[in-house]
Amino acid sequence: MPDPNRPRNFLVATLRMLTAGWVFAAILFVMITVHEITRGGFDSLILDQLVLLRFPVYYTFTFVLLGGSLLTGLANAMLASGKRRYLFAFSLILLAVITLVVDYIFVYCELVKMLLPLGSPRPQWFRSYHRSTEVMNSVAMLLVLIASLLLQRNPSVQSTDQL
Questions:
Q1: Which residues does 25 contact at the CB level (< 8 Å), separation at least 6?
Q2: What is the pLDDT at residue 152?
Q3: Could you tell me if 113 and 130 are in contact, meaning their C-beta atoms sit under 8 angstroms apart?
Q4: What are phi and psi of 4, to 5 degrees?
Q5: What does R_g of the chain's alpha carbons equal in angstroms?
Q6: Measured between alpha carbons, how far is 105 from 125 in angstroms, rounded to an integer?
Q7: How far is it, in rounded angstroms, from Cα 97 to Cα 3?
Q8: Closest CA to 51 of 106, 138, 130
Q9: Among candidates 115, 114, 69, 58, which has minimal Cα distance to 91?
Q10: Each residue of 64-100: pLDDT tens digit?
Q11: Contact criterion met (CB below 8 Å) for 72 and 14
Q12: Which backbone phi and psi does 76 adopt, to 5 degrees?
């Protein structure tokens, strides 16, 4: 007899991989970027080129993985009615995606405009935009990390599946 929980188990496993994978990739991306900036050896023109080359890949990867997380999380939340931790994890992922969409549209796209043409002086508000994108990405990373940890919890360890 087929396991009635099989579709939900598959969704939970997929959701775990997508969220944990995005958090790992985002942390790795930040570590590499910070290392390149702090170790020196690159002038500002090269660093600007790296930003223009890498961040579109970062945002594409982000929206593919977190978009998949949203779809998988929604399907799982619908199948796991009454299990608040899945709904809460889905809500955290949704909030993270909204944060990243706002960051991309209103902050990152403006930062790109400030970097072009390459080698041009940056406007005085560049730093505040840069700081804003750092904060928004950090908040999103924290939200997805919390969601991922909620999804990793083994329900057999606890007697309840509630928060």
A1: 61, 65
A2: 86
A3: no
A4: -70, -20
A5: 19
A6: 17
A7: 33
A8: 130
A9: 69
A10: 999 999 999 999 888 877 688 889 999 999 999 999 9
A11: yes
A12: -65, -45
CA distance 76 to 121: 49
Three-state secondary structure call for residue 149: helix
Q: Which residue has the tokens 């908040």?
A: 139
Q: The tokens 């939200």 sit on which residue?
A: 143
Q: Which residues of the chain have pLDDT under 70?
A: 1, 82, 154-163
Alpha carbon distance 39, 121 (integer Å): 22
Task: List the structure tokens of 16.
Answer: 């775990």
The amino acid at 147: A
Q: CB within 8 A of 52, min separation 6: which ones? A: 112, 115, 116, 118
- Domain chopping of the chain, boundaries: 6-152
Pull the structure tokens for residue 106.
């209103």
